[in-house]
Amino acid sequence: MTKSVISILLGLIAPLVADRLTKLYFMKQSADSGFVLFSGILESTRHQNYGVVANFPLPMLVIFILTAVAVFFLVLGLRSAWKKSDWPQSAYLLLILAGAAGNLWDRVQYGYVFDWILLFSRSALNLADIFIILGLLGYFFTYRPAGRRPTS
């Protein structure tokens, strides 16, 4: 196996394992054994998300199709970034892919995405969601269209 293939696999597997382990841990916890870091701001929960972002309801088939299309474009972007040796872009795209894989795993195995982090007593999410958000932010803040050079 080449170094680049190993790097890609590690970039996908490490966040995916972290997501799976935290979900399995919090799934096994009783509802009253969670944590509260800051009451009303950051605490644990046990939430089954059958929809997409913010629990917006969509049929499972539509969710799978949208996920497949997103993964297709992410892989194309990753391939392009990798060819250009753009390591930050590659890392951000790998984070997004790992997050998508973590949530897709839940949908296939359980029929929903398990969320265990509660923000502001309102928004439930998990590590996969955090990976997707960080990957998107990093990607868009560092993205440079082809042919454009960074300004000094």
Average predicted confidence as pLDDT: 90
**Based on CA inertia axes, which overall geometry fits?**
globular
Strand content: 5-15%
Instruction: Report the uncertain regions.
Output: none
* Rg result: 17 Å
Total number of strands: 4
Helical content band:
55-70%
Which structural category fits the helices and strands? alpha+beta
Please tally the helical runs, counting DSSP H or I stretches of 4 or more residues.
Answer: 4
**Total of domains:** 1
- Cα(first) to Cα(last) distance is 38 Å
Q: How would you sum up the major sheet? A: 4 strands, antiparallel
Name the helix and strand elements from N-terminus to C-terminus, one letter apiece. Answer: HEEHHEEH
Strand order in the sheet with the most strands: 1-2-3-4
How would you describe this structure to a colleague?
- The chain is globular.
- The longest helix is centred in the first third of the chain and has 26 residues, at 3-28.
- It has four helices and four strands, in the order αββααββα.
- It has one domain (3-142).
- A four-stranded antiparallel beta sheet has the order 1-2-3-4.
- Strand 3 (113-119) and strand 4 form a beta hairpin.
- The model has no long low-confidence stretch (mean pLDDT 90).
- With 152 residues, the chain is α+β, with helices and mostly antiparallel strands.
